[in-house]
Amino acid sequence: MALENVLVYRIVTGDNTYPHSGNFTIEQAGQITVDDSNGSDDSIFGDLTHTGGADQPDQDVSVSTVTEISNGDLVDLRYKYTFTGSDGSSGTVYFIATNGAANYGPLMVSETPLDPSVTYTFGTFNTDGAVAYDDLVPCFAAGTWITTQAGEKRIETLSAGDMILTRDNGFQHLQWIGKRTVLAEEKFAPIRFETGVLRNTAPLLVSPNHRMLIEGGSPQLLFGEPEVFVAAKHLISNEGVSIQTGGRVTYFHMMFNSHQIVSSNGAPSESLFPTETSLGSLRHASVKEVFSLFPELQLLGLENYGDTARICLRGYEALAMQQNVA
Predict the structure, then answer these.
(1) Is there a contact between 146 and 156 (Cβ–Cβ < 8 Å)?
(2) pLDDT average, residue stretch 249-274
(3) At 272, is the secondary structure helix, strand, or coil?
(4) Above 70 in pLDDT, residue 200?
(5) What is this structure's pTM?
(6) Dihedral of alpha carbons 109, 111, 116, 122, sign
(7) How far is CA 214 from the centre of its chain?
(8) What is the pLDDT of residue 124?
């Protein structure tokens, strides 16, 4: 089965019906998982009316957080426009149609990340809307919003030196950010938190061992702490939490001078805490970069980074806490 995950945007202001012209702004509409598995151009998000038409009948939606698209719908791309942004960006967007109808717009996908704070201008038009899934913005960590001194920013737009809001220490300089793209299978399959599960404002996907901050009466009662860290994989028994497999996932890692709690889609979770396990998940070049920024970790040992921002529950402790809540 070829499951492809795609971030969907919605036009908020501007010309959202065909033909398009002038300026427009966008918002994130949500994410869709497309089951494209008939063995014909399964890596291509097809265009019914032009290239890719033979594959289009197999582009079924298996998961959707987009209001206008339901699970089981058939999705297709009908045409594309180039664009330029007020921030100097440029790229190509592709308009989505559902269930074979001529209902394309205002939903679209993009080859480059789009920012709600930017005004875009439509450019040249082409009726060929087919595009490789790999060329589109991934819907995983690359869509995660992080609270910064400059407002909410997508994690893929951050760079070292940015001021990130932390729960305990206000705005802190981001010392390092890295990423790794892997197949979303087995131990690398992300954990998905539906909107509101951890007070997150949008669906959130994190790596299985990424620790989320849990607060309330149960941690206090069982562990004497008002807030604790729990690995995402130990929360999947909760309603609204699931494992999402298929396609590729791009994981981002943020590191500060000390372990921090940051806001990701509104949910509190941890920054990278350097251990043999966490650094082992990074590429060799990324590990070298971390050690170049924090040489004491390599020279004196990882334990010299300091303590975690909160106590970290083991799997059986997390289970006991959830049973106490139930």
Answers:
(1) no
(2) 89
(3) coil
(4) yes
(5) 0.56
(6) negative
(7) 20
(8) 93
The label of the residue with tokens 């980074």 reads 305
Question: Which two three-digit tokens encode residue 192?
Answer: 């998905």
pLDDT tens digits along 133-149: 766 654 345 678 899 99
> What is the Cα–Cα distance from 85 to 123, expressed in whole angstroms?
11
> What does residue 325 show for φ and ψ, rounded to 5 degrees?
-65, -40
Cα(326)–Cα(323) distance, integer angstroms? 5
User: What is the predicted pLDDT for the residue at 53?
Assistant: 46
Matching residue, tokens 């957080």: 65
Backbone angles phi, psi at 120, to 5 degrees: -110, 155
Token pair belonging to 180: 């790794």
Supply the DSSP symbol for 91. E
Q: CA geometry: angle at 256 spanning 31 and 298, to 5°?
A: 115
Whether the upstream peptide bond of residue 190 has omega within 30° of 0, thus cis, is no
Q: Measured in Å, how far apart are the chain's first and last C-alpha atoms? A: 36
Please count the other Cβ atoms lying within 10 Å of the Cβ belonging to residue 250.
20
Neighbour tally for 166: CB within 10 Å: 20
Residue 48: per-residue pLDDT: 61
139 class by beta-carbon count within 10 Å (0-12 exposed, 13-18 middle, 19+ buried): buried
Report the half-sphere exposure of 253 (CA within 13 A, side-chain side). Answer: 23
- The contacts found for 219-227 with CB under 8 angstroms, 24 or more apart, are 219/321, 221/324, 222/317, 222/320, 222/321, 222/324, 223/311, 223/313, 223/317, 223/321, 225/310, 225/311, 227/310
Listed residue (35, 33, 90, 91) closest to 63, CA to CA: 33
Q: Which two tokens stand for residue 111?
A: 């080859």
